[in-house]
Specification:
71 residues, mainly alpha, 87% helix, elongated
């Protein structure tokens, strides 16, 4: 029963701690967000292109193997 009665106090302490920690957060500027977003998009496109090349290359290798074995 004591645990149940202590819950509001613990919840209030938790929220105070969260508020104090949020004041310590250093948020990025809009230009930092734009530049890092651009890096993420460019990296994603490059990896997608690389994986497409690997997929097409492996497709050709498998097709050549199957053709060589008469399938």
């Amino acid at each position: 029963m004591e645990d149940l009665l202590g819950y509001p106090r613990r919840a209030q302490k938790f929220l105070q701690d969260v508020r104090a920690e949020m004041k310590l957060v250093v948020w990025p500027s809009p230009s930092e967000v734009r530049s890092t977003t651009l890096v993420v998009i460019m990296t994603t496109v490059l990896f997608a292109f690389f994986l497409w090349l690997v997929d097409k290359g492996s497709e050709r290798v498998v097709a050549a193997i199957l053709k060589a074995h008469g399938h």
